[in-house]
Write a structure and sequence with these properties.
With 58 residues, this protein is an all-beta fold. Helices cover 0% and strands 57% of the residues. It is built from no helices and 5 strands. It is globular.
């Protein structure tokens, strides 16, 4: 699973963006995640051009 950081989350739209280790950005839905905290390190799966199964790194 890739690792990245949540760099943006819009609560009104329930969508956000994750930056991966190389700085590339992927959108994700707040409905498919365990965390929406900006700055949180996360692991995730990639489905097409979207991050899914987003989970906080502890």
């Amino acid at each position: 699973m890739p690792q990245g950081t949540i760099v943006l989350f819009n609560k009104s739209d329930c969508v956000g963006i994750i930056a991966d280790e190389h700085g590339d950005r992927l959108p994700f839905s707040g409905l498919e995640t365990q965390t929406t905290d900006v700055g949180q390190q996360v692991i995730y799966d990639v489905h097409g051009a979207k991050a899914t199964n987003v989970a906080a790194v502890r």
